[in-house]
Amino acid sequence: MPLNENEPVPGLCLDKLSLGYGNRMIVESLDLTLPTSAFTVLLGRNGSGKSTVLRACAGLLKPKAGTVLLDGKPLAGFTARESARRIAILPQGPAAPEGLTVSDLVRQGRYPHRGLFSRWSGADEEAVREALELTGMADLREQPLENLSGGQRQRAWIAMSLAQQTEILLLDEPTTFLDLAHQAEVMSLITMLVKSRHKTVVAVLHDINQAARHADHIVMFKAGRLVEQGPPGRIMTREHIRRVFDIDPEIVHDVKTNARFILS
């Protein structure tokens, strides 16, 4: 929180947020400030509310109560185009029409910056070029998505999100269904975006050890409530993991990376 109470909190802030679908409540009275220019991972068991919170942060789910704030202003007050210029979201398992090339997909990321009848501009082309370069997809730009490996497809989708040129990137299970090599590719890309490009990245992950190794900040949920949050070194304890996941893990300390990992 800022030292001056009248100063708006930069980035995303959730104030007494309650979320649900129909009459079913998923998240209740959540207060959470997401660090800017950092990689935050949302952890918890299935059904704990992680993806629901992510959707609300993108403005895709209207709160039952409370507010999502962006730089101190209610996100509900932004138009869809205004929001998409500030926040990009990549849902789990996105799908594209058959035959769509990498370049076609990435160009779609420019929609928030273009008017209904505006022509494709040099700025649009540069944004697409940079997104392809950052994700290592430039040499594959003319390839149909269905010809790519799982890791390459995921990087293409991330490139589309980067073409939006937002400062905030929300990722829902970006490594699910990828093999270990492709998981490592995606996590390395996320780390680079945060460290070199100062992006604010918030991701839902199922792999606790991935979070321990790569995240700057971890938020743990259980049954729709925030249990604990903080840097991985403080969060990765037997007590916290037992409380959230109902398991009794063995924790090891990697002296090389100074990270803690679960063995069992």
- Count helical runs: 9
User: What is the terminal-to-terminal distance?
Assistant: 36 Å
CATH-level-2 architecture: 3-Layer(aba) Sandwich
Task: Specify Rg, calculated over alpha carbons.
Answer: 19 Å
GO molecular function, one term: ATP hydrolysis activity
Protein name: Iron complex transport system ATP-binding protein
Keywords: ATP-binding, Cell membrane, Ion transport, Iron, Iron transport, Membrane, Nucleotide-binding, Transport
Family: Belongs to the ABC transporter superfamily.
Describe, in plain words, how this protein is organized in 3D.
This protein is α/β, with parallel strands linked by helices. The model has no long low-confidence stretch (mean pLDDT 92). 32% of the residues lie in helices and 25% in strands. It has one domain (12-262): Rossmann fold (3-Layer(aba) Sandwich), CATH 3.40.50.300. It is globular. β9 and β10 form a beta hairpin.
Short characterization:
By secondary structure, the chain is of the alpha/beta class. 32% of the residues lie in helices and 25% in strands.
Main attributes?
264 residues, alpha/beta, Rossmann fold, 6-stranded mixed sheet, 4-stranded antiparallel sheet, 9 helices, 12 strands, globular
Layout of helices and strands:
Layout (H helix, E strand, L loop, with lengths): L11 E10 L2 E10 L5 E5 L6 H8 L7 E6 L2 E2 L5 H7 E4 L11 H6 L14 H13 L15 H14 L4 E5 L7 H18 L2 E5 L3 H7 L2 E6 L2 E6 L1 H4 L2 H8 L5 E4 L4 E4 L2
Parallel strand pairs: 3-8, 3-9, 6-7, 7-8
Antiparallel strand pairs: 1-2, 1-4, 4-5, 9-10, 11-12
Helix pairs in contact: 4-5, 5-6
GO biological process, one term: iron ion transport
Keywords: ATP-binding, Cell membrane, Ion transport, Iron, Iron transport, Membrane, Nucleotide-binding, Transport
Protein name: Iron complex transport system ATP-binding protein
